[in-house]
Specification:
4 copies of one chain form a homotetramer. Chain A is mainly α. The first copy, chain A, has 9 helices and no strands. Chains in contact: A-B, C-D. Chains A and B meet through helix 1, helix 6, helix 7, helix 8 and helix 9 of A and helix 1, helix 6, helix 7, helix 8 and helix 9 of B. Chain D binds a DNA duplex through helix 1 and helix 3.
DNA sequence: AATGAATGAGTTTTCATTCAT
DNA sequence: GATGAATGAAAACTCATTCAT
């Protein structure tokens, strides 16, 4: 009986703790479809199965909710990527491939892809959030990337020119895939696996034919 | 008197013809900063130096203005790219380089970069416009790209694997650059020329060191 | 054990009995600063050191609380004034002076001065309360005053014209002082003793110079 | 026809100029009955015969409207009083009587009496406005009063003690009358003329019987 | 054609009140 | 009795759109 009691209490407090997460999930869906200004908190509430006023028990304002959604979603994903960069022992190619796989699985294929979409669409109206995203997300991803490339150049796997490449360019196919799925998926569904293959093949070998001597 | 009249009409009608373009330019700036829902027609009017009601002499609604802005801006740019694809005689590499240069000069460096930004941010609320963009912009750009790649593969310049590549991936660095300038330029300005170099080097050679035999 | 129990019960019920008074004190402070509509029960609760819902254990509604605050505060003070009117034996001047002293000490100098302020500010929205206040407070104060004046006129101390005076006018400096302290105290603090002196001097002698024969 | 035209234009621009005044009149009535927080702009608009949004063409916010109402109403009235103080040649008694008459006619008998009511009820939430009222209204009225009293004392009409009186006390019957009419008029209508008589008699002669030698 | 005052539907936010714990 | 999370009605304020001038 004590066990049952404990279990109930746990389930109760778990629900309580999940409320903000439920709201943020609902909010992400609405924001990603309608943008910040186009989203009605009424709809967020309905989607979360609560009523309007309840949102204000957990978030100070619509702006606040928006910022929390972005921060809450992107950070865990980043930590996972960094863990891979640190832990794996292998060739630079393997690490890079593994990281790209994670990116396509976690960012492009889940609703986390809405986060970069929202930063693009709303970043200008949330300069504080854009600064956070630049500092805590972009900068960290670029650092990650630089680390792998340096390792590859050091052991002779990668061309030394890559040290001067802009990291945005290297990751850009993933961004394109995420944006495509957000906007044009209905007209032409994207095959994520095939896209990842393109990304890796392009990134590793480039267009030019080695045998070509014309 | 007829002459005078004609002259007046000409000067007058010239102003008349420019009015919609002035409005659309003002609208693009507002939409690109504030998004569709976040933009006030009042501000568009002020920026265009006219008054609120005048917009409705040329556009039926805010939605209509938004769609016209997107259509009006992106098409001329596409036609220019297609002309290059058709006219230039040279190696596939040269044509591709030249097209990328145009893209970075016309799309990334001017306010035309706001068009893809707006499609990403607002596409979901304008399915009709998204369908237009997919059909008239994306599809045509991909066709353009496929044509150059086929030419390069045919003459041995390019690796045959490139025929299976997703065109989005090949162009994605340009999208990244355009989005960067839209959102993060203030935190870390992008050197367009260096970025183009990265794009071309990455696209042509890839990461791997051809001498590497490890 | 019975003793312990009783003691506990006593202490407990004492707390219980004080609860409504604590709430009303907190409410008076909030109402007096923010008015009825501008006061949040949340703030009343916080000030009383309890939580929102608890107020509803003692008061049916915000309106009810407001009315109780006014009734609860003003009646004991009135009873005290009436006691003085009945008990004191002396000249009419002395009785009147003594009553005014009480008014300035009890009404103007304590937070009881917020009661007339609230009647002025909110009386229109509480017609039932205004009627109570008129009947149970104003009328009784005027009766009190009339009684002293009649005594003074009867024994020749006061001018007979005073029998026709409006009682509001005689007491009005006290109201002014109470309102001043409520609104303008921060800009120009009121010296209550000096004000009482003015009130009594004005009330007794008036402006005119007896010696003047111009 | 030109005349008609001009007349129309005049009537048109007159209406335009009156819009803010119409709104302020409607607002004063609502504010005076319901207080600041208790007033709905919807009701102000309805009373002014316009719609909600129109208020915002002339006033930035509800707060702004409230402050403008107070400022707009009280200043002309003050100027009138000051003019009397300066222009009239006569005994101090006559000037004072004349000023009091104006106060009862203009302040107590018209809806201008709502202004002091609102300052009492809402002054705490509008510290800026309270400071304005203290500085521009109260201070000027007290100066006015002091000037008359000094004149009366100088020529021997008034008792020199009056120089030390608090001006609030001298004017307080007028405040009481204004407040009475605002709150208790429905239970016991106030005879303004009789009240003014009381005020003047009290102010001039006081209570005490000069013949009394007890 | 151009204006900008007016409209009123729509959205965010607040807060009295309830009720399960 | 006490709590405080949840509710949803109500109100300030905005802004696309209209229309008399």
């Amino acid at each position: 009986m004590a066990g049952t009691n404990t279990s109930q209490e746990h389930s109760y407090s778990r629900r309580k703790d999940e409320r903000p997460a439920e709201i943020m999930n609902a909010a992400l869906e609405e924001f990603s479809t309608n943008g910040f200004a186009g989203t009605r908190l009424q709809d967020v509430a309905r989607r979360a199965g609560i009523c309007k006023g309840t949102i204000y028990l957990y978030f100070r304002s619509k702006e606040d909710l928006f910022e929390e959604v972005v921060r809450d979603r992107i950070l865990p994903y980043l930590e996972q990527l960094e863990a891979i960069g640190e832990n794996v022992e292998g060739s630079a190619r393997d690490i890079l491939r593994q990281q790209l796989k994670i990116i396509y699985q976690q960012l492009v294929s889940t609703d986390t892809r809405y986060i970069p979409k929202l930063m693009i669409g709303e970043g200008n109206r949330f300069p504080h959030l854009a600064e956070f995203y630049f500092r805590e997300v972009i900068t960290r991803m670029h650092k990650l990337l630089r680390s792998v490339i340096e390792r590859g150049v050091a052991n002779g796997e990668f061309r030394p020119e890559a040290l001067r490449w802009k990291p945005q360019a290297i990751l850009s196919p993933a961004l394109s895939a995420a944006m495509w799925r957000t906007v044009f998926e209905q007209f032409d569904p994207l095959d994520i696996d095939a896209f990842l293959d393109t990304h890796i093949d392009l990134l590793m070998h480039g267009l030019l034919n080695r045998e070509y001597t014309g």
